[in-house]
Write a structure and sequence with these properties.
- The protein is α/β, with parallel strands linked by helices.
- It contains 15 helices and 18 strands.
- The protein has two domains: 287 residues, Acetylglutamate kinase-like (Carbamate kinase, 3-Layer(aba) Sandwich); 148 residues, 2-Layer Sandwich (VC0802-like), CATH 3.30.2130.10.
- Helix 2 runs antiparallel to helix 5.
- The structure holds adenosine-5'-diphosphate and aspartyl phosphate.
- The site of adenosine-5'-diphosphate has 19 residues, from strand 8.
């Protein structure tokens, strides 16, 4: 049994949904289909999820959201008309979205999750309706009925262990199951969403629950590329990746697959195949437990920006028991999570996402570090990008850091910090955000030189 998840790009228009239908019926093993909400039809388009977010926010503020609401209904209607579905499905979808928008706004985060989830929920209803019209035995299953229970953390749900056993029952469904991605239910019966792009997580959790033979993740690219295709034209396709490599790359900026979506599949030993809805015969990228290390040290180069670093120096920091804990305690008091913490004998940098740091919080943190830890120096450097070099091959290759640093030096890019991940499959370079693209380009060129065609 295979699980096939289709992303927003695969459901953006009725023509895309027709492709989804053809892909599903071409393989009898494709029994459980997870769908996202209709995504962008062209680069400047707005995803249904984003329209729903605007509606929800406006509704909370008591503002008029009729324009965005109409746009949402128009998008679903266009799809339904293109697929020749009866108008009943649009009535059902309108009622469902109106219901969510007029539900209690007492808890804003809970309200927003219920509104956002409408994108996937109604897409699943629509897709199931189309399959039925084509006389395919298919049914829409709501996550509550399917058994997808999650923690009560709006926008950041985690799967509750009991879900896996409950979801196992989906194996016994006779026909094709159409399951909405992106959200589950708390034990109190509320809708709670995963973080953005979380339909990938739904697919992986169900794959684990039903012990699928394969988790197929359909998107709009032929493969996971060695670098973000918006930075390098025609980058090298990756045929095979390990779970660890993919997790590091997704976490560091490869948004083609959600970084939290690897673990459920990995725990059940289920391979993940990233494939293209627009070119389904292409083999795509397979994510597995182990792979032969046939290429060089790196499998990919990822990057992300919006980071800042809290640099702290204090003579003999290395001898002060509990110093690191005290710094992290200060951050915890402000509910700030950190990403990396490269350190030396007398200094340490804590890298955090910049959006967690308002100027008021920044001043309070600096004051507390100075007052409580008596440091020599503390400074916050903003607007950093992190460049992540990833590859299982790094463990067996000497000189990877030197090659990367030399490539950056030759391009006159200053390295703000370096951190070798303790997993030994990743290495991080911090640079100024303004140097991000250039840094990725030169590192990519160093490790993935173009093969001359003669
Ligand atoms: N290294 C990469 N390899 C492939 N795609 C990437 C990579 N980095 C970023 N992307 C982007 O991820 C996109 C697919 O992810 P996403 O937009 O979430 O798709 P979906 O709508 O199918 O969920 C691609 O169109 C591509 O622009
Ligand atoms: N629709 C949700 C969840 C999702 O997974 O979407 P996509 O498959 O388009 O990344 C979002 O936009 O975040």
């Amino acid at each position: 049994m295979k699980i096939a998840k289709f992303g927003g790009s695969s459901l953006a228009t009725w023509e895309q949904i027709e492709k989804v239908f053809q892909i599903v019926v071409s393989d009898k093993e494709r029994k459980i289909i997870v769908v996202s909400a209709p995504g962008k039809r062209y680069p400047d388009d707005i995803k249904i999820t984003d329209l729903l977010i605007t509606c929800g926010r406006k509704s909370i503020n008591g503002e008029d959201y009729s324009i965005e609401y109409s746009q949402i209904i128009e998008r679903y209607s266009e799809i339904a008309n293109g697929l020749c579905l009866s108008s009943d499905i649009i009535d059902e979808i309108s009622l469902n979205i109106e219901g969510a928008l007029s539900s209690s706004k007492e808890n804003h985060a809970k309200y927003m999750d219920a509104v956002m989830a409408c994108g996937e929920d109604n897409c699943a209803r629509l897709v199931a309706n189309y399959f039925q019209m084509k006389e395919i035995d298919a049914e829409y299953i709501n996550p509550k009925d399917g058994g997808l229970f999650v923690t009560n953390e709006p926008g950041h749900a985690q799967v509750l262990p009991k879900s896996y056993l409950l979801l196992h029952e989906l194996r016994n469904k006779k026909g094709i199951v159409i399951f909405p991605g992106f959200f589950g239910y708390s034990e109190d019966g509320d809708i709670v969403t995963f973080s953005r792009s979380g339909s990938d997580i739904t697919g992986s959790v169900i794959a684990n629950g039903v012990k699928a033979s394969l988790y197929e993740n359909f998107t709009d690219v032929d493969a996971v590329y060695s670098v973000n295709p918006s930075i390098i034209q025609e980058p090298k396709e990756i045929k095979e990746l390990t779970y660890r490599e993919m997790r590091e790359l997704s976490y560091a900026g490869f948004n083609v697959f959600h970084d939290e979506a690897l673990i459920p599949a990995f725990q059940a030993g289920i391979p993940v195949n990233i494939k293209n809805t627009n070119n389904p015969t292409a083999p795509g990228t397979v994510i597995v437990k182990e792979r032969k290390l046939t290429n060089g040290p790196l499998v990919g180069v990822a990057s992300d920006n919006g980071f800042c670093s809290i640099y702290i120096s204090k003579y003999l920091m290395n001898r002060e028991v509990g110093f690191g804990r005290k710094i992290l305690q200060i951050l915890e008091d402000f509910h700030i999570s950190y990403e990396h913490q490269p350190s030396g004998i007398d200094d340490i940098s804590i890298v955090i996402r910049q959006n967690q740091l308002t100027s008021t919080i920044e001043n309070q943190i600096i004051n507390r570090i100075q007052d409580e830890l008596h440091v020599d120096h503390v400074v916050i450097e903003r607007d950093l990008a992190l460049i992540m070099l990833v590859g299982e091959g790094m463990r067996h290759n000497v000189g990877t850091t030197a090659r990367a640093s030399k490539a950056l030096a030759n391009a006159s890019i200053n390295i703000e910090m370096i951190n070798q991940g303790s997993s030994e499959v990743s290495m991080m370079f911090g640079v100024k955000a303004s140097d991000e693209k250039k840094a990725v380009q030169v590192i990519y060129e160093e490790f993935f030189p173009k093969v001359s065609s003669k």
